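Now for our target.
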Amino acid sequence: MTSTAPHATTEPDPTWRATVRARLVPPSPFPAWVGWASALAVALFAGVLRFVGLGRPGEIYFDETYYAKNALALWVFGYEHETVEDADAQLATGNGDIWSGGADFVVHPPLAKWMIAAGDWLWGLLPMTEPVEPAGWRMAAAVFGTLSVLLLVRVAQRMTRSWLLGSAAGLIMALDGLHFTLSRIAMVDVFLTFWILAGFTCLVIDRDRTRARLARLAEQGSTGANWLGVRWWRIAAGVCLGAAIGCKWSALFYLAAFGLLTVAWDYGARRSAGHHRTALRWFGFDAVPAFFQTVGVAAVTYLATWSGWLATSGGYGRTWGEQHMAGWLADLPGWVQGPVNGLRSLAYYHQQMYTFHSGLSKPHDYASQPWEWIIMRTPVAFYYNDQPSTCGQPDCSTTILSVGTPAVWWLGIVALLVMLGWWLTYRDWRAGAVLLGVAAGWLPWFAYPDRTMFVFYALPMLPFLVLAITMAIGLAMGAADSRPEFAPWSRVAGGVVFGVVLLLVIANFAYLYPVLSAETITYEAWADRMWFQTWIYGNGGEG
């Protein structure tokens, strides 16, 4: 049986060329400027939402007690440093001289803290010559939270070929309470999410560019292309995923998942292009290079995030290599011993970090299991303050409850089921990609049932949950020419679904906004917004 695809030595068949191009490169139905304009508009809205009241509350709260001070220490010393007992209060009053002792043992990589420090610098807080404003150490989180919304709009537009659905995706994430609160606090999770989403975006662009190149080769009658050129966007994805690991180790799950995803896309592209001996070409010219372009580049990027620690001598465990120098190292030149001992010290530090994480099982009222995240059973009370008579009533409350907007997460459950059914039925690459994105950020945590975990660990899977909602809406709206006899009615029904979903998300977020943003409201208004007992007490009982 012979292939229907023409060989490179024959005249390309126009019908075959058109079929291959249609399979590989779906046309964009809107001009590029429309996509960018809508993305920037949604990102501007998200940015305003995050920056208004960013300095509220005017003190360090929740895990800012670690990250705000660690960021300042990195800027001053190049490594995390121990602080005085009342460092939080001193920092909030503008005193940056809060150091005591020596190096501090910190269990997360440094990149996100360097980004927080850069936000401090941009805000004008470093060096500490002016009174500190908490908005300064939260600035970077607000910036990268906003940029993650911009990224989501653009990647959703690529995946759905709709500027409207892409804009809806950005709006939904902008109005999620978990993303909102974590974009207004000096913690690492929003940076982790940004770099993971950036890596995914680069891979989607690489997929489009690769398939476009295969289509061009097909137009020339080639079904045996081997090397497809330098995959710069896939290399960029490796950089982004390495940066994500440099924020938090949980990004390793995404590196593994996305590494498999991109080579699966390559195999499908070569099959669609009608290549002969697809598996052999795919393995030698796609899969093997992909390992170095993702895993290899990510490893180099991750190591670079430790530059400050490696370039100084005072970091925790920094001199372990010199103090435990193996005999064979003594025979090496001094210029070799230094870097080798630095890497050995870094390996020792990582062993200590892994020991801490693997044994972390300290009880916490707001700790939760992964199954609770998707339903927002146990959010985290980042901040609560009882301020009598400041709201015009005898009892007032000021709180920051880090909870995902229920309309987003609960609708997300339905959307995931739709995507699963769609993928099983049609093997749609987009459905598979979002399912994998959610799985990589959620399922691995079930392997650690005794570990102390919190709902904000779920933030990296939020963009993929939102993509699932967006694509489910797209399926409801349908294509105008998919069923001509039902198209008008299906479009009307889909438009209703689109409007109802967005209205639910907007209304739900607006209702919860006072308890997400540290607004001072009456105690009764606060209590009305605590829908479940676990939103008040967590798993700590009725205290």
User: Anything to note?
Assistant: The first strand starts at residue 81 and ends at 83.
